[in-house]
Every structure is written in structure tokens, then in C-alpha cells.
Amino acid sequence: MTDIGKFLSDVEKIKKHERQNNNGKCDYNRIKNNLRNLFERATSCPIGLPGSIFEYWENTYVLNSTDLSYEPSSDNIAKLGAFLAFLDNSDEDQDLITAEDWQKLGRLVNYEAEDLPVDILQELMMVLVSKGAY
Question: Is 98 helix (H, G, I), strand (E, B) or coil?
């Protein structure tokens, strides 16, 4: 299992435990901190950028849902996994990232650039340039 696969599995475990502890219902507001911590720990990238990407994902995809009891949906979990793959310089599931996502990721990387190690910044920038984010 890849690191992304393990991450996705761990997200499903968080949702499963939430449902088990709450009569079969999952409330995103009760699991969001666990998801954020999991996402931030799953990457070797310094915490500022993963936190910013998680917030972008949450605001753009999860909080726009009409019913948070179904969030994060399978599609949204897959998108978060694709963002994690980007942070870890993997091309896994990059087809799930839209042109708008790439542009936003580019802006977030630029914002966090001074806090990133040069090697990580170079890897991220190469991917962003290849995806037309700039």
C-alpha cells in the first residue's frame, strides 16, 4: 500500500469510528481536527503549507456541501489524497486536481515559499509549472 493509500485508509477509519460512536452518523465538525492532524502528519512538508492546503480543501469542497453529515465524501477524500500526493512529489491521482486547484496550490506555495526547504520548494515548483499553475 502506498503512503497515499494508507492515508486514505486512515481517513476511512476516522469516519468509521465517528459513525460507531454516534449511532451511525458522521459529523464533519467532530472529525475535522483529526483529519487535519492526519493530513499534516502524513507529509514531510513543513506544517504551514499542508495546513493551508487543508484549509483550501475544506473551504472549497467540504464546507460547500449541503449536508456535512456526508462529508467528507469519497470524492472529497480522494481529492485530499491527491493534494497529499502533490506535497509528497507523487503523481498519484493528479488527474483529480483541477486547473483551478493547481492555480490555488501555486499561490499557496508562493505564500509559504520562504518557510520551505529549497529542495521541497523546487520539487513543488516543477510540478506546478508542468501543470500550468503559473
Answer: coil
47-93: pLDDT as tens digits: 899 999 999 999 999 999 888 878 899 999 999 999 999 999 998 99
- Find, among 92, 99, 107, the residue nearest to 3 by Cα: 92
Instruction: Show Cβ contacts of residue 36 under 8 Å, excluding neighbours closer than 6 positions.
Output: 51, 54, 58
Q: Which three three-digit cell numbers place residue 55?
A: 484549509
> What is the residue type of 60?
T
Residue the block writes with cell 508542468: 130
Three-class secondary structure of residue 45 per DSSP: coil
Length of the chain: 134
Side chain identity at residue 50, one-letter code: P
Contact 54, 72 (CB under 8 A): no
**What is the CB neighbour count within 10 angstroms for residue 23?**
6
pTM metric for this prediction: 0.93
